[in-house]
Amino acid sequence: MPRRSNLPAEARFTMNFSARQWWVGFALDVVIKAALLYFSAVLISLGVILTGGIGPAIPFVLIAVSISGLYFLCLFFGERFVAWLGSADPERRHAFRPALVLIFTNVLFVVSFTVLVSATGNFYDNVILSMILTASNLPAILLVAAARGLAGRLKGLR
Length: 158
Description:
About 70% of the residues lie in helices and about 0% in strands. The protein is mainly alpha-helical and about 160 residues long. Helix 1 (about 20-45) crosses helix 2 (about 55-85). The protein is flat and about 50 Å long.
């Protein structure tokens, strides 16, 4: 029988990652975004950045940390929103809640990132950019969730 939490439904998170798993997910997300941003800049500049050493990569890592921070903030709000939706029926457990969290989070990320970078105009290109970044958001979370599931299965075999 599953263990019940004493927390109210709106205080429970649907993805149930530990603090360590959230940090691993954040670190993976930063690495993915930094690589995506850095290597796209390398392709655009035809390799000029590669000859400069590690120095030119630092701004890309800082940008990746900022974008990942925005995504994890959106993930927090997505968690809270889905918990709020589930508070109407706290006894029912829905298997699709993590998927609902990711859907809401990614929509929130696209909207917020597009608004942040569209101050100078070029709205359509910024929507495309935010959707590409949204696609890069998912691997980190899915890898952490898969590792958590695998660890749980291996723990159950003992």
